[in-house]
Amino acid sequence: MNPQVSTPIHAPTRSTGRYAKLPQLAGRGYIPLGLFARIPLAMLIVGTLTLVTAASGSYAIGGFAAGAVGIGSAIGAPLLGFLADKLGQRRVLLASAVLNALAVAAVVLLTYLAGSFDTGHTVIVLATALVAGSTSPQVGPMSRVRWMALSKKLPAAERGPLVDTALSLEGTADEITFVLGPALVGVLASLVAPWLPLALAAVMTLVLVSLFAVHPTEKAVTAHRAPGSVNGTTPAPSESISWLKVGIPVAAMLCMGMFFGSSQTAISAFMGVFASVDQTGLIYAVMGFSSAFTALSVAYWPASISHPVRWVAVSALMVLGAAGLLLADSVPMMIVMLLFLGLSVGPTMVTIFSIGGMVAPARWMGTVMTALASGIVAGTALGAAIAGSVAQDSGYHSALLVPVAAAGLLFILGAVTTLVLRRR
Description:
Number of domains: 2
Largest sheet: none
Number of strands: 0
Helix content: over 70%
Radius of gyration: 21 Å
CATH architecture of the largest domain: Up-down Bundle
Order of helices and strands: HHHHHHHHHHHHHHHHH
CATH class of the largest domain: Mainly Alpha
CATH topology of the largest domain: Growth Hormone, Chain: A
CATH superfamily of the largest domain: MFS general substrate transporter like domains
Number of helices: 17
Shape: globular
């Protein structure tokens, strides 16, 4: 690791681009480490689905196992964030890396030890998958916390642009990993064996998350305890939290997850009519590319445009893009519509995370960031379930109305945010 990263406290002295300043602040190795350390989480749900389905011969059992991972992650993420706020990121990340690697290895072993998936063994596998999800290290949210902590040591005029730049990069990293992770699972499972993706994920978690945990940037977070606190456990009056203000971005991330889950399920139904369901992942990834591109662009948006106004603007564009999916009557047309839709998705996520950082006191930052991330996970499962039911009963066209509704809820929450935060 770069020994200079333990003291990346001051702004770079030479004139550089916004993204070039980030390695100067956190160290050259931090950005790639943060990117690759979150890939195992992106592999976990799809890897569990693939392994258990292949071993049991049942799509239902595989789906339940994947759902158990998602539910576990949605429950465990805020708890891990809360513990990180109280105990420091290093301890929590190291413990979760070890526990998660063991839980994922247990999922693999228990799945293959089953001669047949009777009720008892199925319950054991599902319970283990739930533990694997709940212990998943939350690298993305905790990396965002580190950037916000590092920004506090910059001159006041540079903090806002730095945070926007860092969160834009983090949003792009999430987009990349949640495209790369499932693709890696598909390649390894088809070319080698269904157990390999999860085995690799366990090893990557143990090694990369541990390296992320001990990276010197984590010291910036522990240095920002509440003023007047004892070991960071007693909140100061200035550290009080408004759960109304925090609840709005968390609810928005739940809607964002519903958008992701419903759109992927609806597009799967669309592909079943016009092509092959197996190609859903490739088509859906198109939205990820345009989303990642525009997420990076947020760093260069004018500071004069407030975050609530950004939220309203990009979510309105998101509603328009989601409605455009209803016009697709061929695969090429769907690709074009997904490219357009992705233009608004990345900036919406970056903006909501930024607002979450604005309304969260420093001592609650890990809790809030992980709650935002868990909202996406829970919403994805909910959106997929709703769209799947609609697609089964009424077809893909009706199912495409679900992501439109989710985007509409995001717009409404953005409008509410402009009122709640009007004095900031």
